[in-house]
Amino acid sequence: MTRPHIVVVGSTMIDMITYAERVPDAGETLIGERFVQGFGGKGANQAVLAARLGAAVTMATCVGIDALGDATVENLRREGIDVDHVTRTDQASSGVAPIWVERDGTNRIICVPGANHEMTQQQARTAVLATPQVDGVVGQLEVPQAVTSAGFRAAKERGAFTVLNPAPAGALDPGLVEVTDWLVPNEAELVELARSLGVSADGTPEHLAVAIARTTGTRVVVTLGSRGAAVCEDGEASVHIAAPTVEAVDTTGAGDAFVGAFAYGLAEGRSATEASRLGCACASASVTRHGTQTSYPTPEEVASLIQQLA
């Protein structure tokens, strides 16, 4: 069987993670418990998870001409991801993401996109059109929206589905919404999305998902953390997907794990409900370990997860 092929038009970051009992208040200095540097960026995270599930993945991104960029490209290669459409720039440094993680696993993140904002529309379009097989194209908001729109428009020319993770939260360009099949926000992003669209942010996430699906003409999956996810395919009702019960130690990258697995599931031919179950399983597994990509299930572990869902 031919492996499903996913193109990720998105970001790469170097995660700089500090673990502490709590985050400091304004003007306060605390002693942290430990520090870890690793690979991240919403685009790269989603690409890595999809690749570990068995997808062929092409990454379209931009990194700096610096040591962090070198390390990022090598990490993608190690994960089996096609890096032919990773470009380098001397106009900005590679992206970084300082992250603070508290004892209960809660995280706070500041993204500094750097070279990610040097991506061009032509780069995204070429990555999608030059890839021999494209089943789905995935994007986020850590690169310019016009770049993601160009990649998604090329996806439509190829007959591929598109998945947009509207994160970090912000207003969406109408042109990007127009070429988006699936919106996959978390609860906070869902509320921000509703406000930006002029939709009342009152009500449950399930109700908001329906309202946003109707307003945008897209299908919506909202991730609900330990409560799983809600899937709205028809603008009429949403289906709740429960997540496995686990003890969370670090939620960093869990949403990206869901998106990567969800996109893989769709590309493999699963229903949105089944793809969401796979997403919940992978995200739940990731929060039981520290780090971002380092917390993701290995290829052997994802094989076991898929078997459990069969």
TrEMBL record:
The active site is at D256. Pfam families: PfkB. It is an enzyme of class 2 (transferase). Residues 5-298 form the Carbohydrate kinase PfkB domain. The record marks M13 as: Important for substrate specificity. Keywords: ATP-binding, Carbohydrate metabolism, Cytoplasm, Kinase, Magnesium, Metal-binding, Nucleotide-binding, Potassium, Transferase. It is found in: Cytoplasm. InterPro entries: Carboh/pur_kinase_PfkB_CS, PfkB_dom, Ribo/fructo_kinase, Ribokinase, Ribokinase-like. It catalyses: 2-deoxy-D-ribose + ATP = 2-deoxy-D-ribose 5-phosphate + ADP + H(+). Catalyzes the ATP-dependent phosphorylation of 2-deoxy-D-ribose to 2-deoxy-D-ribose 5-phosphate (dRib-5P), allowing the use of deoxyribose as the sole carbon source. Homodimer. Belongs to the carbohydrate kinase PfkB family. Deoxyribokinase subfamily. This is Deoxyribokinase. It comes from Nocardioides astragali.
